[in-house]
Write the structure tokens for this entry.
Amino acid sequence: MKIVCAASVLYAEEAFGTLGEVRVLSDRLISHADLRDADALIVRSKTTVDAMLLDRTRVAFVGTTTSGTDHLDLDYLNPSPLAWCAAPGCNANSVSEYVAAALCTLAHRRGRTLAGLTLGVVGVGQVGSRVAKKAQALGMRVLLNDPPLAVATGDPVYLPLERVLRESDAITLHVPLARRGQYPTFRMANCGFFAKVKAGCLFLNASRGEVVDEEALLFALEHGAVSHAVLDVWNNEPFVEPHVLEKVALGTPHIAGYSFEGRLNGTLAVYRELCHFLEVEPSWAPPQNPAAPGPVIAVDARGKSEEAVLWETVHRAYDIEVDDRALRQTLILDRASRGVRFDALRRDYPERREFPARQVRLEHAEPAIAERIAALGFGVA
């Protein structure tokens, strides 16, 4: 069996090598010619999988080690005899930690507290539901909007978008990219969307770049409808527009879900699906200790507010400003070089462990702050 894997798939050779011959190729450079004699294709979000790539090949199985599927042409895949799978929820916790880090960082920069502010979560699936829990641990009031869930459950906890936009001090998007259907999300954050927000709100997008009209966001920033924006995803990736990056408070190269655990979960999910497809028992498991836990975070809470302790803990676990600075260094490059650098930042992304892999040792802290840190996912000593 011949298996082509995108280079960004963690443990590609170790896992899929137990099932056949593995060829690892650069994500955006996988071509039709590479797949003519391949039996399976394993990718991440940078590889577009459609008829042009797969027609007249012998590929029988396609797996993406990501939760999103907008890089897969499902109109082509679903009616075809091909089997395909994704890894829903694999990086949901990673993205929720990214949002928590962004909120803490912006609050710290502005000398504000998050406690008592309202966060509007648009899209309450695997990611959005975790974001809501972390926001509550940060002391925020949370409003939820998810029309499909509202219809499916009838639960009044899911509020109309207009109310969420009107009442939220910060708005974060966690929707799939849908260009048509009953609930389209393509360019949902447009001029009409920003006209309804609470003036001076924060805006965050770590879902898909195409759900935001970037020119509408810039207009909202220029006219005070939005005070600060955080973007991890962009229109026309990997070619981030400099005039957009320059205006956002935090900009990162589509790495919100790039924790070590998130990438590992994706590989495991697709590996097991391919084993099921081949009717063989899985024989590969990651090493018992695939990566050493991060160093203990020691925090002395003496004389510090709960907000300051939370900020210090999250910041030391994940400094989002490092990723922001790395992307801003691309501003001096020409367009082609910016695209190459964007992909390189993702390909060579340093290992980032999730909060549960970090132990926090608190000194002189009240039980309440220990409970909030534990609610964010950290182990607390």
